[in-house]
Amino acid sequence: MPAITAVPVGRVAFVGAGPGQADLITLRGAQRLAQAAVVLSDALVDPALRELAPQARWLHVGKRGYADSTGQEAINALLIKCARDVGPAGLVVRLKGGDPSIFGRLEEELQAMAAAGVACEVVPGVTAALAAAASAQRPLTRRGVGRSVSFATAMTASGTPDAGTCGHADTEVFYMAGKQLGALSRKLVRAGWSGDTAVCVVSRAGWPDELSSDHTVAGLGQATMLHTGRPTVIVVGAGAQALNPVESPVVEKDCAPWTAALNT
């Protein structure tokens, strides 16, 4: 029986692109893009990041709620194929929006790479919750009242909002809830949150057209029209409280002058 020869494979780097504009990526993430032969990119990644890897072949494997998405098994298989195609000296970058470890299906992809014998690296990124807190200038932790933070997804496999973790942290942050704010409001109340608890809703965090608005748990559904069709993060509890009580309820920032200054 002939000997079976192992096929040399390249490495895979799971890179967090950050939640918005290209300059939110980390230095290490930018370095890995510059080294990549192939980049498998998420749907919400800034197209400007292509400038950091002009030598690479870019493949779109995005996932979006309520929209056409690339299946997870297909992504796993494509990662393995690309790692084999680039050879032992090559690098494949799996570019994920935000941070790969936060609702990025990283576990499944790491397991698939391990089963295929592909070496991996994880490069962290700025997750949307932190970008939303920075945008709205609402620290997620507060001395004396905000000692714990939890991240949860409002999108479940069944397509219904889930507030099952509510009440376990002083500040709770919900991802992927933009189309279900009314339903999430009702579930928050049923989970024990007071109807007058502060809520801060931020959409398109990290982008020039980001928006934030202030609400209560009971009135969360009122944010639907303002943030419709936009990736949205909901902050509930201590970290949602305004530092300045006379702050405008809607904040829209123009980041262009800052970005221009940084690029000069």
What does this protein structure show overall?
- By secondary structure, this protein is α/β, with parallel strands linked by helices.
- Helix content is 25%, strand content 21%.
- The strands form two sheets. A six-stranded mixed β-sheet has the order 6-7-10-8-9-11, covered by helices on one side. A five-stranded parallel β-sheet has the order 3-2-4-1-5, with helices on both faces.
- The radius of gyration is 20 Å and the shape is elongated.
- The N and C termini lie far apart (64 Å).
- The relative contact order is 0.15.
- The model is unreliable at 1-5 (pLDDT under 50).
Describe the SSE topology.
Blueprint: E1 11-16, H1 27-35, E2 38-41, E3 57-60, H2 72-86, E4 91-96, H3 106-116, E5 120-123, H4 128-136, E6 149-153, E7 171-175, H5 181-190, E8 198-203, E9 211-216, H6 224-227, E10 232-237, E11 250-252, H7 256-262
Parallel strand pairs: 1-4, 1-5, 2-3, 2-4, 6-7
Antiparallel strand pairs: 7-10, 8-9, 8-10, 9-11
